[in-house]
């Protein structure tokens, strides 16, 4: 029940107070499953790929996984969006026909529908959203006519079996599961640490009262 909130990005770049609030919010809602809300803050697609590659490098260095275990599916699971569903509709506002380093890996999938709208984000209305959804539905209908098996459904269903040891390599599957579980534990432990490290100052702490220029002249 409830909404699971995920702050996607490098939160270490945010002010300490925002880091604490974001960490507490993710920890308190981590077990909610009704809806998922992803908030991108301090996010960049290149940084996301770099961080994912670094996690994999450390996993290989520590012999948790083998170099042969590395493939696109493993990289996808090491991204900030590793626990999210595959991207289906990408909406870009302001009339720009570019991704601007946003979800560059996720948006490269052949089943992702891109919709570029002229409205600027502050003016993005319900009608713009409905138009994007209609565009998505019509595009899927057209793709299904050209190819009975939707690219989105085909990849979403095959990536888990073909890339996660579907050839009978049980040891490889176990290695990857252990590696991903290790990443999860490290992630939540880091959030716990941030939520406790950046506590607001106590009300009992002495306060320094700044006097005005007039007060200083009269004293």
From TrEMBL:
Broadest EC class assigned to this enzyme: transferase
Entry's EC annotation: 2.5.1.-
GO terms classed as biological process: polyprenol biosynthetic process
Entry GO CC: dehydrodolichyl diphosphate synthase complex; endoplasmic reticulum
GO molecular function annotations of the record: ditrans,polycis-polyprenyl diphosphate synthase [(2E,6E)-farnesyl diphosphate specific] activity
Alphabetical keyword list: Transferase
Alphabetical list of PROSITE patterns matching this protein: UPP_SYNTHASE
Pfam families referenced in this protein's UniProt entry, alphabetically: Prenyltransf
Reaction catalysed by this enzyme: n isopentenyl diphosphate + (2E,6E)-farnesyl diphosphate = a di-trans,poly-cis-polyprenyl diphosphate + n diphosphate
Annotated segments matching region Disordered: 200-219
Similarity remark: Belongs to the UPP synthase family.
Protein name per UniProt: Alkyl transferase
């Amino acid at each position: 029940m409830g909404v699971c909130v995920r702050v996607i990005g490098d939160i270490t770049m945010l002010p300490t107070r925002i880091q604490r609030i974001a960490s507490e919010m993710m920890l308190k809602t981590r077990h909610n499953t009704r809806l998922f809300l992803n908030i991108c803050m301090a996010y960049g697609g290149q940084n996301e790929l770099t961080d994912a590659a670094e996690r994999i490098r450390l996993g290989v260095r520590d012999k948790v996984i083998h170099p042969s275990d590395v493939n696109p599916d493993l990289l996808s699971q090491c991204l900030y969006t590793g626990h999210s569903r595959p991207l289906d509709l990408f909406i870009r506002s302001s009339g720009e026909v570019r991704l601007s380093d946003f979800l560059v890996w996720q948006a490269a999938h052949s089943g992702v529908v891109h919709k570029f709208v002229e409205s600027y984000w502050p003016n993005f209305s319900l009608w713009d959203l409905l138009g994007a959804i209609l565009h998505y539905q019509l595009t899927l209908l057209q793709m299904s006519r050209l190819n009975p098996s939707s690219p989105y459904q085909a990849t979403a269903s095959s990536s888990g079996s073909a890339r996660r040891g579907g050839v009978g390599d049980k040891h490889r599957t176990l290695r990857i599961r252990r590696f991903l579980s290790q990443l999860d534990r490290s992630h939540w432990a880091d959030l716990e640490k941030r939520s406790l490290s950046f506590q607001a100052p106590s009300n009992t702490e002495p306060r320094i009262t700044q006097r005005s220029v007039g007060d200083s002249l009269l004293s």
